[in-house]
Amino acid sequence: MRDILEDLEAGKLLSDPDPVRRAQIQMKTPLPKRFYKAVSVVPMENGFAVHLDGRSVRTPGKAVMVLPTEKAATLVADEFSAQSEVIDPVTMPVMRLVNTAIDGVASDPQAVLEDVLRFASSDLLCYRADGPQGLVDRQNELWDPVLDWARSRLGARFNLAEGVIHVEQPREAIAVLGAHLGQRSEPMRLAAIHVMTALTGSALLALAVDFGELDGEEAWAAGHVDEDWQIEHWGQDAEAEARRSARRRDMMAAVSLLEALQG
User: Fold this and answer.
1) 8-state DSSP, 34
2) Strand, coil or helix: 120
3) Spatial distance between the Cα atoms of 111 and 181, rounded to a whole number of angstroms
4) Quick check: helix, strand or coil at residue 262?
5) What is the DSSP annotation of 153-195?
6) I need a labelling partner for 162 at 20 to 30 A (CA). Which of 21, 74, 137, 152 fits?
7) Is the Nucleotide-binding keyword given for this protein (predicted)?
8) What is the dihedral sign for C-alpha 189, 62, 89, 52?
């Protein structure tokens, strides 16, 4: 299922999941020209559709793209409106996420839920550096409040470890997260949680955003403490910066969709 999700999240119109490699390929492969003039959001019996010149947008799987709220549909419509002479799916992360939800997650939400729980069993927040002290302090500052929240609000207590040696998490904690995720099985909501989990390495950060405990920027910062530390001390090359920018864009798209699904 994770392979399927990664393929769908990349989008069938995308040539490679790596943003730098994708850009290199797309310099050689012409993007489809924009073929429409008007973009609109149209109420449907079961939600809101995005229309291009009066015709419904369909997913790569040929399903009509119907979103549960007008705000969510507007996010996709805005991405279509922003296209100029060509349609570049790289710049349409919400559309790609919605495609993932409709064509992939909706067919087997339990598999996606279980994938999120696999992340939780080795959650980023549970693996602490043993030095330098500045990094240790920053991890504690950004991660401890989330673990405290998970314990007090969700009833899930996690074990911590230094370094990368695997630490077994209590089955009760994973079961509690599973119960909360089970209440979030709507395909688009679950797809957004999955993307945030995969991009941060933390199911706890994704759930904290879903519950409103963290905003997207806070979750991004918490999920990239180690990377930010390395950048501050050693710098970053252009390709790494491009990859990070693409990941951040997809993260914020997931956060925006999650917020829009609430009406």
Assistant:
1) P
2) helix
3) 12
4) coil
5) II------EETTS--PPPHHHHHHHHHHHHTT-SHHHHHHHHH
6) 152
7) no
8) negative
Query: Is 189 in contact with 113 (CB distance < 8 Å)?
Result: no
What are the structure tokens assigned to 66, written together? 């119907």
Amino acid at 70: E
- Positive or negative: CA dihedral 90, 203, 229, 234: negative
Q: Quick one: tokens of 8?
A: 């769908």
Rg (the chain; Cα; Å): 19
Residue-wise pLDDT tens digits, 206-223: 999 999 999 999 999 999
Task: Kindly report, residue by residue over 159-169, the tens digit of the pLDDT.
Answer: 999 988 999 99
| Kind of pairing between the strands at 127-128 and 161-162 | parallel
Q: How far apart are CA 45 and CA 104, in angstroms?
A: 22
Residue 256 neighbours by CB distance under 10 Å: 18
For the chain, list residues with pLDDT below 50. 1-14
Question: Taking Cα atoms as reference points, which of 142, 37, 139, 154 lies closest to residue 85?
Answer: 37
